[in-house]
Amino acid sequence: STLMRSSAASDVYKRQVNMSELYLMVTIINRNLTKKFMDFYTDTGLEVSMTAAGSGTAANEILDYFGLEGSEKSVLFHVVTDGKWSEVKRKLSKEMKIDIPGVGIAFAIRISSIGGKKTLNYLTCGQEFVKGDESVLKETKYELVVVIANQGYSEDVMDAARKVHAAGGTVIHAKGTGAKKAEKFLGVTLVPEKDMIFIVTKTENKNDIMRAIMDEAGFESKAKSIVFSIPVTDTAGMRLMEEIEESMHLTNNNT
User: Fold this and answer.
1) What are the Cα distances from residue 249, in Å, to 10, 203, 205, 243?
2) Which residues make beta-bridge pairs with 145?
3) CA 18, CA 10: separation in Å to the nearest integer?
4) Would you say 142 and 112 are in contact if contact means Cβ atoms under 8 Å apart?
5) Helices 203-217 & 154-162, crossing angle to 10 degrees?
6) Percentage of residues in the chain with pLDDT exceeding 90?
7) Rounded distance, CA 58 to CA 52, Å?
8) Rounded distance, CA 47 to CA 167, Å?
9) Positive or negative torsion for Cα 154, 155, 159, 165
């Protein structure tokens, strides 16, 4: 029986260590390198991405020190498993020379939850992923809800979110890839032009907000939204938002 218990424990341990983590990988590069990096990511199996324009704010002497050319940037977003991140990180150094000044940076942020199995399969298409329990950092008071919607429908997303006490969001215009994968995994056709909406909310409200967006601005709507969340470890300047959310909550309860 001891041997059986040991074997069972070993089996549980194996299942635990084989569970994958999901990350939002963010790459910031000089804009003239965008195509080169997009081709590189496609070659590594990352066909689903969002690309947004950005601007650097470093002083000229800092730009000169790091060999950077101007402030025109591209910000690339991909969802990766921990195994894919390890592979990409290694190749970014070896093949793309990202450690050389003037190329760019990449970093990964853990994702805590994704709205629906179809969305999960779409964002991780081709990556080996074993789903475990929802990842939530202990004592995390806030979460960042990230919504990717067809451009022009950000208000539809926010209307749905406000019904469940979301105070507001920030919109970034982006260009998406992976239309063929969307047809395969989501059963819908997605246009390249996207809005990325970032909503910071209390952790206790996150699931309601994600569900409302999925129900009212999801695949069956013109917005065709994809939604996932990222734990926020700390915040500042959130007191007013808390007051607004509390006020909205009381108003809704009294009507």
Assistant:
1) 48, 15, 11, 10
2) 199, 229
3) 12
4) no
5) 130
6) 58
7) 19
8) 33
9) positive
**Residue range 78-95, pLDDT digits in tens:** 999 999 999 999 999 999
Q: What is the pLDDT of residues 136-187, one digit of tens each?
A: 444 678 899 999 999 999 999 999 999 998 888 999 999 999 988 999 999 8
Of 143, 182, 130, 178, the residue nearest 22 (C-alpha) = 130
**Tokens 């607004």 appear where?**
244
The answer to whether residues 194 and 148 touch, using CB atoms and an 8 Å cutoff, is yes
**Report field, pTM of the whole predicted structure over 0.90:** no
Task: List, in sequence order, every residue forming a beta bridge with 228; answer none if it has no partner.
Answer: 114, 146
Q: Could you give the CA distance from residue 80 to residue 132 in angstroms, rounded to a whole number?
A: 15
Selection from 253, 190, 200, 209 nearest residue 231 by Cα: 200
Is the Cβ–Cβ distance between 59 and 43 less than 8 Å? Answer: no
Work out the burial of residue 158: count CB atoms within 10 Å of its CB; fewer than 13 is exposed, 13-18 middle, 19 or more buried.
Answer: buried
Distance, CA of 32 to CA of 241 (rounded, Å): 38
In 63-139, which ranges are E strands? 72-81, 104-110, 113-114
